[in-house]
Amino acid sequence: MVHAYILIQTEVGKAAAVAAEISGMPGVVTAEDVTGPYDVVVRAEGETMDELGELVITKVQAVDGITRTLTCPVVRV
Fold first, then answer.
1. What total of structural domains would you count in the chain?
2. Which of 8, 16, 50, 69 is least surrounded, with the fewest CB atoms within 10 Å of its CB?
3. Closest CA to 28 of 39, 40, 37
4. 63 lies in a domain?
5. Has residue 77 been placed in a domain?
6. Residue 28 is part of which domain span?
7. CATH number at residue 56
8. Angstrom distance (rounded) from CA 76 to CA 27
9. Per residue in 18-69, pLDDT tens?
10. Phi-psi region for residue 28, left (φ > 0), alpha (ψ -120 to 50) or beta?
11. How many angstroms separate the Cα of 18 from the Cα of each of 13, 49, 75, 77?
């Protein structure tokens, strides 16, 4: 299993709606609106890096109100 954090910037006032919509997606473990340079932090998982990438590109980035995403895969060292 591959895990990643997805840091999301949204349009003003859209963080709660974006987090709520993303939280129901398959592969999303948590989606929370936060303060700071990013508005929503998502923990996601997939069987492979390709599956995780597909989640980000085809589903998460398609959510209305998102202006930018940064995906941070979790590494085990």
1. 1
2. 50
3. 40
4. yes
5. no
6. 8-68
7. 3.30.70.920
8. 20
9. 999 999 999 999 999 999 999 999 999 999 999 999 999 999 999 999 999 9
10. beta
11. 10, 23, 26, 32
CB 4 within 8 A of CB 73: yes
Q: Is residue 1 part of a domain?
A: no
Bridge partners of residue 10, in order along the sequence: 66
- Could you tell me which residues come within 8 angstroms of residue 44 by beta carbon, excluding any fewer than 6 positions away? 3, 4, 5, 6, 27, 28, 29, 52, 55, 56, 60
Cα–Cα distance measured from residue 63 to residue 21, given in angstroms and rounded to the nearest whole number: 8
The gap from C-alpha 46 to its chain's centroid, in whole angstroms, comes to 13
13 part of a folded domain: yes
Q: Are 30 and 43 in contact (CB under 8 A)?
A: yes
CA distance 64 to 45: 22
Report if pTM > 0.90: yes
Query: Which candidate, 37, 30, 71, 69, places its Cα nearest to that of 53?
Result: 71
